[in-house]
């Protein structure tokens, strides 16, 4: 039997950015990792091994629509859904540049409510990136299983903190970068109402598990595959030091599931100088915009220290990403 800790209601909206804040969204998209063709090919090849149908895909928690755009290259139609209407507005604006409106439709709904908006057994693939740790796990998986066709694919992934690729820089620079991350999240989480703070704890538990908290009932799912890249890095954006609660990761990996762990310093690589790294932090979470060295002496000094370790202003260094991907087929 799978286990999931019990949490208070945490439905309070904590990630709110207006759709017309073009500068934020352009910077947000430009500082996210670029999911590589080889990464997407793992998903596409997995699906093709289980199904020949590429009619309908869902991008759940679509955000600005990056995954939607990839899916629209491979499926006749894509449904982009998000619980935030502003995200859907941004996705529509960005996707309209490259895709005919008939190729993509939009649903304003939580992942857990997807089955209430779409026919059962209608989707060939459901993808969700960076969103699963925010969901009610069991309700989300139940909704996905209802919408997927038999033989349909569920692809869930989550990436964590940018990580120095250079083995010599990692022990010097990564602790500083991680401290900046912790300080920023601590400001956001410790300033939250109890309901929201418990929501962050649920996220931390899920992230710390490297998505192993996801259970797949053998009566509903088959051929589960779990991939993990760069486990020397930190998948969790925040943990006990920011949440103020003990983190309780759980594993629901079942016997017979495929598990593959890879170390790859070039995985989704970014080449950033300190200015680009600051931009990443500025738009990582809306609450960070007030805490990237603009009035916070401790964080400002850490950025100065990190710039020194990186070789000074304007010197670029390569970063990679820790990531977990889970694939499963609907029976």
Task: Give the strand order, joined by hyphens, for the main sheet.
Answer: 3-2-1-4-5-11-7-8
How would you classify the quaternary structure?
single chain
Strand content: 15-25%
Largest sheet: 8 strands, mixed
| Spatial extent as radius of gyration | 19 Å
Number of helices: 10
Order of helices and strands: HHEHEHEEHEEHHEHEEHHEE
Q: State the low-pLDDT regions, or none.
A: 1-13
Number of strands: 11
Structural class designation: alpha/beta
Give the % helix.
Answer: 25-40%
Shape: globular
Mean pLDDT: 92
Separation of the first and last Cα atoms: 19 Å
Task: Provide a descriptive summary of the structure in words.
It is built from 10 helices and 11 strands. The strands form 2 sheets. It has an 8-stranded mixed beta sheet with strand order 3-2-1-4-5-11-7-8. The protein has a 3-stranded antiparallel beta sheet with strand order 6-10-9. It has helices spanning 22-31, 37-50, 66-71, 85-95, 137-147, 170-190, 194-208, 240-243, 274-284, 297-310, and strands at 56-60, 77-82, 104-108, 123-129, 148-159, 163-164, 221-229, 258-262, 270-272, 317-320, 323-330. It is globular, with a radius of gyration of 19 Å. With 331 residues, the protein is an alpha/beta fold. The model is unreliable at 1-13 (pLDDT under 50). The longest helix has 21 residues, at 170-190. Helix 1 crosses helix 9 (274-284) and helix 6 (170-190) packs antiparallel against helix 10.
């Amino acid at each position: 039997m799978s286990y999931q800790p019990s949490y208070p209601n945490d439905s309070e909206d904590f990630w709110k950015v207006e759709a017309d804040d073009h500068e934020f969204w352009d910077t947000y998209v430009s500082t996210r990792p670029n999911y590589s063709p080889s990464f997407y090919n793992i998903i596409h090849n997995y699906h093709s091994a289980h199904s020949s149908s590429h009619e309908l895909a869902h991008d759940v928690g679509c955000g600005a629509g990056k995954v939607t755009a990839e899916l629209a290259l491979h499926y006749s139609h894509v449904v982009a859904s998000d619980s935030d209407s502003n995200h859907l507005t941004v996705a529509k604006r960005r996707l309209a540049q490259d895709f005919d409106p008939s190729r993509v439709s939009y649903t304003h709904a939580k992942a857990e409510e997807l089955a209430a908006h779409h026919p059962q057994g209608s989707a060939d693939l459901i993808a969700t990136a960076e969103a699963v740790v925010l969901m009610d796990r069991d309700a989300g998986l139940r909704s996905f299983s209802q919408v997927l066709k038999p033989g349909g694919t569920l692809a869930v992934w989550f990436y964590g903190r940018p990580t120095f690729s250079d083995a010599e820089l990692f022990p010097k620079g990564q602790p500083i970068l991680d401290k900046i991350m912790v300080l920023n999240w601590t400001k956001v989480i410790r300033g939250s109402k109890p309901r929201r703070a418990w929501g962050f704890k649920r996220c931390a538990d899920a992230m710390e598990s490297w998505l192993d908290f996801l259970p797949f009932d053998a009566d509903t799912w088959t051929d589960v595959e779990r991939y993990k890249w760069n486990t020397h890095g930190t998948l969790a954006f925040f943990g006990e030091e920011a949440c103020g609660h003990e983190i309780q990761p759980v594993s629901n990996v079942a016997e017979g599931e495929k598990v593959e762990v890879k170390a790859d310093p070039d995985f989704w690589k970014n080449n950033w100088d300190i200015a680009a790294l600051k931009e990443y932090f500025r738009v990582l979470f809306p609450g960070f915009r007030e805490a990237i060295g603009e009035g916070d002496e401790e964080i400002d000094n850490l950025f100065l220290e990190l710039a020194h370790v990186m070789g000074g202003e304007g010197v670029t260094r390569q970063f990679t990403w820790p990531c977990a991907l889970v694939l499963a087929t609907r029976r």
